Structures are given as structure tokens and as C-alpha cells.
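Pilot study result, target chain (149 residues):
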Amino acid sequence: MSVGQYCNRHVITTETTTEIREIARLMRHHHVGAIVVVERRDDAEYPVGIVTDRDLVVEVLAQSLSPEIVTVGDIMSGKLLTAREDDNFWRTLDRMSAKGVRRLPVVDEKGALLGILAIDDVLTALAVGFSDVSRLVQREIAREVQQRQ
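Predicted structure:
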């Protein structure tokens, strides 16, 4: 299983100069808790950071900063952990857990943004897998019961 199989290919992005009010508006409009901060070059987007709803609260609101004077570049998480599309899904989850990361940009071999893997995506993948296994077990039980009759 690879990260590319489970990541969300629809990623909301922005640049470091975007104002905080715009970030909040984008998060609300797109129903997301994180926006990947990118640098655009050669017709591609390269992730340079990430800003989360928690960043807005902890770095702006809790410090009583005026949203008009703060940009994404001021509060984004710059030490960005990424995964390649073909990275092993389980090893990537281990990396996310070890670093305390809930969202991970997925990049191609050149480092261009392809998607994002969020804990929500992981939980959905696991839920679908458990559901499939449960149906398999139920079918097997039903088949055994039918054979014994």
C-alpha cells in the first residue's frame, strides 16, 4: 500500500504573503483545517509550509494579534514533513506519529505537491478495510451455516 492510494488529491494551497483573514475564509469555505503553503515555479506548486486552524488560534488569537498585520509566512509551520506518492503507507504513518503530525503533504520525485494525507484519510481507509473484513467474516459464517443445514 502506498501513500498515493490514500492521499487526497484536492489540496487547498496559498502563498506566504496571504493574510490571516483570507486563510480563515478559505478554511471555512473549503471545510478544511489546514492549508498547504506553496511556492509556485515552473507551473508547479512546491510545499514550503503548512498553516492549520490551530495555528490561527494559538499564534494569532491567543496572542491578541491583529489579523490584519499577520501573514501566513509569520505563523506557518516551516519544518515541513512530506511523503512521496510511492512511500509505504504504514511507514509513513509511523513517521507521522513519531513527529506528531496530523497532515502530511504528498509530493512527486521533484518535490512538487500532489496531495495531502490527513489522519481523517487514514481513519477512512482503516474503516473501509475493517468493513470489508467484517463482511468477509459474515459471508463465511453464513456459508458455513448453509453448508451444515
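One observation from the pilot: Residues 3-118 form a domain with the CBS-domain fold (CATH 3.10.580.10). A full batch analysis is planned for the follow-on phase.
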